[in-house]
From TrEMBL:
InterPro entries: DUF7923, Znf-CCCH_tandem, Znf_CCCH. PROSITE patterns: ZF_C3H1. This is C3H1-type domain-containing protein. It comes from Penicillium malachiteum. Gene3D superfamilies: Zinc finger, CCCH-type. Residues 278-338 are annotated as: Disordered. PANTHER family: CCCH ZINC FINGER DNA BINDING PROTEIN (AFU_ORTHOLOGUE AFUA_5G12760).
Length: 463
């Protein structure tokens, strides 16, 4: 019997066993791989669970920190108000009241700002209002006097004093006469506060000029902060701001600020085509020694520019030989030719010896608050609304002292003034010839060039 069929059958069975064993090995290997993969996934899951738990804890800590920071940010909210004195001008009623007017203006503006914030920015709760007005005080005071708003430039200093003393965060800053000084200061201060987290709004009271237009246009490029900026309109905005003003919120306070510029009612003769006034006639016997008066100044003029105290002398001495005699009268065709006395350098010289004026008499007259326009020039251009005295009867000696008081306020045209009726001062009354300073030093109200003036009169300019 042949064994080949059996051998074939054996080999077939052996092949099947071999396939079975291979299958078992493959299954075992697969199980091992799956177990390893499961362990890796299990580790990853455990790691992610721990990570998520840590993230949740960290998120809770961050939320607490954010809440604390928000509480800190909301703790002292404030808004900043930056005003250019060229365009933001308080109404005449405030300026004419001097120090009391400054207090009233500060209070009324604060009340107006507070009401505006509550109405238009409700998200800001009880903010402090930090207000700074940048102003050329000297130029503004003289402009107000020439416009008939006030009778004494010293009232502006009183107004500023009252304004600065009233509200803790409100002040008027004297920036001098440099061009664009207010614009520069406002732009620099604006950048400091714009990104301050406690500052919720910046108000800008700007003038209508190309510099502010460019500044506001550049601010618009940052869309994230545009809503943090508002404008305050005092004098009516003109065409220079037409392209940008529609992009900003605009606040107006007509009960506090003027909407039009003050218009001068008096300028020096060489500045105007109108005939010069002839209200002050020199005494014929003292024609060449009369001091040339200027614009009005009140008897309460600040003495800060006077420097050292005036020497006290007896009234009899002054009455016997005054430097000049003032006779107030209306102009007439027969009035003498008016003159302006000058030294060899062509500088105007006010012939007035302050050392001859009794200090007690001077202080007494200052307290009377007399209208210098009325008593020295013969009429007051703002008589109906003038707060100074027009009714008192003055002696020649008192008129002499009143003229000296008026000279304590510097004339804006300085040594070049050609107005024979100018009652302002053209040289520092406390400066001696040849000395370029006085007792007050840098705080003197007169310019450095007005010190050390040669008082020897060598020529007379006829007007």
């Amino acid at each position: 019997m042949d064994s080949t069929p059996y051998l074939d059958r054996y080999r077939q069975i052996g092949a099947v066993d071999q396939q079975k064993n291979q299958l078992i090995e493959d299954l075992l290997q697969r199980v091992t791989e799956l177990e390893n993969s499961f362990q890796r996934e299990k580790l990853d899951h455990e790691r992610e669970t721990r990570f998520n738990r840590d993230i949740q804890l960290h998120e809770m800590e961050l939320m607490q920190q954010i809440a604390q920071i928000k509480n800190i940010m909301d703790r002292e909210p404030f808004v900043v108000v930056l005003l250019d004195g060229e365009a933001i001008i308080f109404k005449d009623d405030f300026l004419q009241l001097g120090e009391e007017g400054g207090r009233l203006a500060a209070q009324q503006f604060y009340a107006g700002m507070h009401a505006y914030i509550l109405s238009n920015l409700p998200s800001i709760h009880t903010p402090k209002i930090i207000t700074t007005l940048y102003l050329n005080v000297k130029g503004f005071a003289e402009n107000c006097a020439r416009s008939g708003i006030i009778s004494d430039p010293g009232l502006i200093h009183d107004f500023i004093r009252g304004f600065n003393e009233t509200m803790s965060y409100s002040e008027i800053v004297d920036i001098g006469s440099a061009k664009n000084k207010a614009n520069d200061k406002i732009q620099e201060t604006f950048q400091v506060f714009l990104y301050n987290c406690h500052c919720h709004q910046v108000f800008v009271g700007c003038a209508s000029n190309p510099e502010y237009a460019r500044f506001l246009e550049d601010t618009l490029t940052d869309g994230d902060i545009t809503g943090r900026v508002s404008l305050i309109e005092g004098l009516t905005f003109e065409k220079e701001l037409d392209t940008v003003k529609s992009s900003y919120r605009i606040a107006k306070f007509p009960e506090v600020f003027r909407s039009t510029k003050p218009v001068p009612i008096y300028v020096a003769p060489w500045k105007s085509s109108l005939p010069s006034r002839s209200l002050l006639t020199p005494s014929p016997s003292q024609q060449l020694s009369n001091p040339p008066p200027l614009s009005r100044a009140s008897t309460n003029t600040d003495m800060s520019g006077m420097g050292a105290p005036l020497a006290v002398s007896t009234s009899n001495k002054t009455n016997e030989s005054p430097d000049f005699q003032v006779v107030r009268s209306r102009a007439s065709p027969s009035s003498p030719v008016k003159t302006v006395e000058r030294n060899k350098y062509g500088q105007r010289v006010d012939r007035l010896d302050f050392k001859s004026i009794p200090r007690d008499d001077l202080n007494r007259l200052k307290k009377l608050k007399l209208c210098n326009y009325y008593f020295l020039l013969g009429e007051c251009p703002n008589e109906e609304n003038c707060y100074h005295d027009h009714d008192r009867k003055l002696t020649k000696q008192e008129l002499h002292i009143l003229s000296a008081i008026a000279r304590m306020t510097p004339c804006r045209f300085g040594l070049e003034c050609d107005d024979p009726e100018c009652i302002y001062g053209h040289r520092c009354p406390q400066s001696e010839p040849g000395k370029k300073t006085c007792f007050r030093g840098d705080s003197c109200r007169f310019e450095p060039v007005a010190h050390g003036i040669d008082t020897n009169i060598v020529k007379v300019t006829k007007i």
